[in-house]
Amino acid sequence: MKKVFATVLSVCMAAALFAGCGASTSSSTAASGTSGSTVAEGELDPNIKATLTFATWDNEAIDFYEELDLEGRFQELYPNVELEIEEFKDDAEYFNQMKIRASANELPDLMYLQTRYFSVYGDYMLDLSDTEAAANNVLAADCVYDGKVIGIPEKISSDYVYYWADLFEEAGVEVPQTWDEFVTVCETLQEYYGADDPSFMAIGMGAKDSWPMYPLMEYSPASFSGNGTYWDYMATVDEPFAEGEPIREAYTKVYDLLSRGVLGSDPLGLGYDQTLSLFLNKQAGMMIDNSMGLAKIKASGVDLSELKSFYVPYTGEDGTINHIAQGDFFMGVTTNSENPELAKAFLEFYFNDFYGDYVQKLSSDSTMTTAEKEKDPYMAYADEAQTNVNTVAYMGGSGDYTAIVNESKFDYNKVGTEMLTEGFDLEAAFDQLNADWSAAREKLGME
C-alpha cells in the first residue's frame, strides 16, 4: 500500500492544472486477464491490473489500514490491484486540494466527503444507491444529493453530556429528561459548587475558542424541531429569525440557559483545552463533547469511575429527546475514476468485508447493520439514563444555504459567543440577522 503525501501531491496538481493537462494521473490502469481466462460480460475481471487511489485526512485511519492489511486483504480478491492512499494533514487542506483537482478532472478514484460538501462535489460522484454497502448502512439513505447516494458514511458523530455522577449526587440532581430540567440542573450545580469555588462551571464550554459552542448553536435548531435538514429549510425563508421560526425559538432557549451564568464567571476567558483540564479536575460538572473528546478524557489518566453521560435533552413538542447523529467520512467513487467498477468493488469490500474489523478500532459507533460494535460504556450510560430518545439524521446545509451564509457572514458559533458578552441584546441580534439574511437572498436572486 503506497502512501502519497499531500504537500508533494498538491505541487504536482497545481502544475498540471496551470499546464492545462486534462489527462488523469490519479489512476494507472490496464485491464488484463490471465492467458486463456474468460470473463462474463458485465463481470469484473479478478485479474485486472490497476492502481486505485483514494484520499483522506484521517491519519489515524491510515495506521489502521496498515495494521489490518487493507491492501493485502483486497488483493485476495484482486491480486494485481494496488492501493495508493493520498494523505492530507487536515480536512481544510484536503477539501482545498480536491476543489483544484475537480476543476482539472484529476480527482482520485475514491474520496471522502462531508455532507456540507455534497453540493460542491455531488456532480463528480457516482450514484451508489444500488450497492450492498448503501443498503446495509444506517445513514446512507437519509444523506443523499439530488436523490442519489453519493457516499457511504463510515463514522457517526454524536455528542454527549459527560458528567461526574458524584457531583450530581452531592448537589441532589439527577439526569434531566427535558430541556427545562436541564436548565434547572445546570443552575443547581452552579449555585451549589460556585458558592465556594468562583471558577466552577456547571457546563465546561471553552467558548474562547468559539467552535465548542457548536452543540448548542449548530445543533439546537435541528434538534428542537426534529428536522435534520433544517438549514435547507432556512435557506428558503427571508426572515428565519422572525417570531415563531424554529431557530429563533431554539436560540431563545439557549440564550436563556447561557444568561444564567452556568458557564462560570469567565465563560470567554478559557479555551477548550483549559476547560477540559478543569473538567478532569472536577471544577466543571459537565462537558458536551463527541467521541474524540471522550478519547481525550480516557487518555488523561484520571480516575473515571464517576464519569457518566446523557444526551442533551432537546425535547420536542411531544416530550421526546431529539438526538443528532451525523454521518462522517462518506466514501464515494468519483466520475474521474478510470476504473469505476473496480472502485465500486473496493467500496463494497471495504464496508462489507473489511469494516467489521476496522470499526472496532474506531471511537465511533458502527454505521453498518452488518458490523455490530459494542457501544463505548461511557456513552452507553446515556441510553440507560434516557429511553425516550429519537435519533435525527443531521445534514449540513446544501448549496443555497452555503451561498447565503457566505454572503450574510452568518456564523452560529459567533452568535453563541456574542450571547456571552455584556450588554448583548437578543432581539436586536435577531433583527440584524434577519436583515443580513434577507439582503443576501435578494442579492443572490433567491426571492
Question: Could you please describe the fold and organization of this structure?
Answer:
By secondary structure, the protein is α/β, with parallel strands linked by helices. 41% of the residues lie in helices and 15% in strands. The chain is built from 19 helices and twelve strands. Strands 1, 2, 3, 4, 5, 6, 11 and 12 form an eight-stranded mixed beta sheet that branches. Strands 8-9-7-10 form a four-stranded mixed beta sheet. α1 (6-18) runs parallel beside α4 (91-103). The longest helix has 19 residues, at 340-358. The radius of gyration is 24 Å and the shape is globular. Residues 7-37 have low confidence and may be disordered.
Topology of this protein?
Blueprint: E1 2-5, H1 6-18, E2 29-30, E3 49-56, H2 59-67, H3 70-75, E4 81-87, H4 91-103, E5 110-113, H5 118-121, H6 132-135, E6 152-157, E7 160-164, H7 165-171, H8 179-194, E8 201-204, H9 214-217, H10 220-225, H11 230-234, H12 246-258, H13 272-280, E9 284-289, H14 291-299, E10 307-310, E11 321-333, H15 340-358, H16 377-385, E12 389-393, H17 399-408, H18 412-419, H19 426-443
Parallel strand pairs: 1-4, 3-4, 3-5, 8-9, 11-12
Antiparallel strand pairs: 2-3, 5-11, 6-11, 7-9, 7-10
Helix pairs in contact: 1-4, 17-19
